[in-house]
Design a protein that fits this description.
The protein is α+β, with helices and mostly antiparallel strands. It has three domains: about 70 residues, 2-Layer Sandwich (Uridine Diphospho-n-acetylenolpyruvylglucosamine Reductase, domain 2); about 110 residues, Uridine Diphospho-n-acetylenolpyruvylglucosamine Reductase, domain 3, CATH 3.30.465.10; about 100 residues, Uridine Diphospho-n-acetylenolpyruvylglucosamine Reductase, domain 1 (Alpha-Beta Complex), CATH 3.90.78. Helices cover about 25% and strands about 25% of the residues. The chain contains eight helices and 20 strands. A hairpin with a 3-residue loop joins strand 6 and strand 7. The radius of gyration is 20 Å and the shape is globular. Uridine-diphosphate-2(N-acetylglucosaminyl) butyric acid (EPU) binds next to strand 13 and helix 7.
Length: about 350
């Protein structure tokens, strides 16, 4: 087991924030976690699990032992009458797995193409896009307890998935490391085309029965048009969750701002588009220091070059304050702020 000392983390977080891990260990197998736990010095030290760094804002150097998940491999695990079960290592890039499934004729992940980050990080915030979220395609996962070193398999109900939420953001936050995820791709494949941007693509192209590859290409094109590529402009995708409000609160906001983008939920609440709220407060294209608000999508904060974590946090707070001041709504950050 190699322990890297004073390891730079800038390359390991998609916002490109500078920070150093006092000690970093690459985890390529469950056994590596158990080696860390058995280590005389590292064993009892606090741990921090890092995936692709696509959902984390680093505001400081890391005294914790940083465990960089690099468990690899993608395979068809089972072929059932009602579904294909695909198993992928936590360290695999999510988008590569989506592309792999498509190349092998297993459909059902295409709406979630191009989401940055790793397979192991996907369940943590229950990633989602264009009408689908991970929970809709989830079978089970393996996770190693960071105190006992025991591997546990959790099914969908046990993971307690919610909107950009799971057990790994609540009860198990910081306590376990996801090594493998199993995805359930239902048979027969039924396309998910209800999202407005996809409906527009159908109308524009005249193709009302797109195959999985076409949906994949459309999703990639839609994302490239309004979301910055982290390889070029540092970012963590949506910075805030879309807030839920009561029907009464929603009516009140509509009275004052008739254009507010809102979606009715099954439980009677309404989900508001945080991007619209931030945009309405005039933040698009604005910056504080080297942290800015993306010109094409106000929900995405970007690294204008050389940003540090505290600038991102200052910008996020200023946005929260102005949205609260105008709409009385508290925006909740999506990434983990360390
Ligand atoms: N809008 C504006 N101004 C903006 C941004 C958005 O008016 O600056 C409006 C749009 O016109 C649209 C509405 O707000 O009517 C919603 O925008 P969009 O469809 O782009 O989706 P979103 O709510 O901003 C969510 C997810 C994204 C996901 C897309 C597509 C969250 C927090 N974000 O964004 O997920 O890709 O839907 O499904 O739920 C992520 O989580 O990192 C992420 C990128």
């Amino acid at each position: 087991m190699a322990v890297e000392l004073d390891a730079p983390l800038r390359q390991h977080n998609t916002f490109g924030l500078p920070a150093t891990a006092r000690q970093l260990v690459r985890i390529t197998h469950e056994a590596d976690v158990r080696r860390v736990l058995a280590h005389p010095r590292l064993g009892r030290a606090p741990k921090f699990v890092l995936g692709g760094g696509s959902n984390v804002i680093l505001t400081r150097d890391m005294p914790e032992v940083v465990l960089k998940v690099e468990v690899g491999g993608v395979r068809l695990l089972a072929e059932r009458d009602d579904a294909f079960i695909i198993e992928a290592g936590g360290g695999e890039r999510w988008h590569d797995v989506v592309a792999w499934t498509l190349a092998h004729g297993f459909h059902g992940l295409e709406n979630m193409a191009l989401i940055p980050g790793t397979v192991g990080a996907a369940p943590v915030q229950n990633i989602g896009a264009y009408g689908l979220e991970l929970a809709d395609r989830f079978e089970s996962l393996d996770t190693v307890d960071l105190v006992t070193g025991r591997t546990v398999t959790l099914n969908k109900a046990q993971c307690k998935f919610g909107y950009r939420d799971s057990l790994f953001k609540t009860a198990l936050a910081g306590k376990s490391l996801i090594t493998r995820v199993r995805l359930r791709l239902p048979r027969p494949w039924i396309p998910v085309l209800g999202y407005l941007d996809l409906e527009r693509k159908m109308a524009d192209t005249g193709n009302t029965h797109p195959d999985a590859r076409t949906i994949f290409d459309w999703v990639c094109a839609i994302r490239r048009a309004k979301l910055p590529d982290p390889a070029e402009i540092g970012n963590v995708g949506s910075f805030f969750k879309n807030p839920m409000v009561s029907a009464e609160q929603c009516r009140d906001i509509i009275t004052r701002d008739p254009h507010v983008v809102h979606y009715p939920m099954a439980d009677g609440q309404f989900k508001l588009a945080a991007g619209w709220l931030i945009d309405a407060c005039g933040w698009k294209g604005k910056a504080i220091g080297h942290a800015g608000v993306y010109e094409k999508q106000a929900l995405v904060l970007v690294n204008k070059g050389g940003a540090i974590g505290s600038e991102v946090v200052t910008l996020a707070r200023a946005i929260q304050e102005s949205v609260y001041g105008r709409f009385g709504i508290r925006l909740e950050p999506e990434p983990v702020i360390v």
